[in-house]
Design goal:
12 helices, single chain, mainly alpha, 0% strand, globular, Solute carrier family 25 member 43, 341 residues
Length: 341
């Protein structure tokens, strides 16, 4: 859901860095909501009295820094996830292109699904580390830092522990995709106009709405996944999980039996509230970084606006534009492309 429109005026490294910085900043700002959400999913004692009381209990028992537990693991996961996803997607799309370079919509969706699976599989241990760091108490920590968490889980519980609950990532992808599809298929009815006429604000609202519906439908799978990631017989109170179970299906059964079926959506309030600021900050930061890069590449006159540089062909790629600049400069025509050159 956190996608941005590709701009050919940026280099691959610039696009990667813009996405990475925007993701890190938005995750850091919304981390308190993420901590409360994950604690609610795991079932720690902090979240027994509702959404607002959860913040107070976390602060009283663990201090302010507790709201950024696991944030480093989450941010570190961004870069390899994005890199693996993009590389895998490009490779699969290239294999399925016809002789004219086209690919069908369903094959593109299939490529995106496989790319997401590969990226999730390679970075899943960092998600487990994030959950363990959030679920533990800052006052009596079992883990200190991301590397220590990963090494201790591997040393005490083995490699399978770093992939506990991974199958739920795949299972949750189905209701998530259905939710996205249902929203986007009805956008023209919602706005009473075709999609190509949507404004940036409408597209932002569409993204938030699709994220809200999709995440709500797939939320029970994520709740069980977080419980499986957190639970360990080697940790105090079994990792803080509110039910004990022997596997994925047993976890569903125990949660519904002891807490009720609605407990599978514990933390949904924090997750829903997080959507708007997360996506808002994500796209705002991306656009700010993008303007800086476009200014450095010579496409716009200032990093504070999108006013185009006079005489610059916006269809040229960064390398082509630099080559054209060098050619015209050697010919003595650099003034025709603007004084900045």
């Amino acid at each position: 859901m956190a996608s941005v429109k590709k701009d050919d005026r940026l280099t691959s490294s610039q696009s990667f860095m813009c996405v990475g910085f925007a993701g890190i900043f938005s995750k850091a700002v919304t981390s308190p909501l993420e901590v409360v959400k994950i604690k609610s999913q795991v079932g720690t004692f902090h979240c027994k009295r509702g959404f607002w009381q959860s913040f107070l209990l976390v602060y009283q028992n663990e201090g302010l820094r507790a709201f950024w537990k696991g944030n480093l693991a989450s941010c570190l996961r961004l870069f390899p996830y994005t890199a693996i996803h993009l590389a895998t997607y490009k490779k699969i799309v290239h294999l399925h292109m016809d002789e004219l370079g086209f690919i069908s919509q369903w094959r593109a969706i299939f490529a995106g699904g496989l790319a997401g699976f590969a990226a999730a599989m390679m970075t899943y241990p960092l998600e487990v580390a994030e959950t363990r760091l959030i679920a533990q108490s800052c006052r009596q920590p079992t883990y200190i830092g991301v590397v220590h968490t990963l090494s201790k889980i591997y040393g005490n519980e083995g490699l399978p522990a770093l992939y506990r609950g991974f199958s739920l990532t795949l299972l949750g992808a189905f209701p998530f995709s259905i939710g996205c599809y249902a929203v986007y298929m009805n956008l023209d009815k919602l706005w009473q106009e075709p999609p190509f006429r949507f404004t940036p604000l409408q597209n932002f609202i569409n993204g938030c709405l699709a994220a809200g519906v999709a995440q709500t439908l797939s939320y029970p799978f994520e709740t069980v996944k977080r419980k499986m990631q957190a639970q360990s017989a080697r940790l105090p109170h079994f990792g803080g999980v509110d039910v004990h179970f022997s596997g994925m299906i047993d976890c569903f059964v125990q949660v519904v039996k002891s807490k009720g079926i609605l407990s599978l959506w514990n933390g949904l309030t924090a997750n829903t509230i997080k959507i708007v600021p997360y996506f808002g900050l994500l796209f705002t930061c991306f656009e700010m970084c993008k303007r800086v890069c476009l200014y450095r590449n010579g496409y716009i006159v200032s990093p504070l606006s999108y006013k185009l540089a006079p005489g610059v062909d916006q269809s040229l790629g960064p390398s082509e534009l630099q080559e054209a600049k060098r050619y015209l400069k050697n010919r003595g025509f650099e003034s025709s492309l603007g004084n900045r050159w």
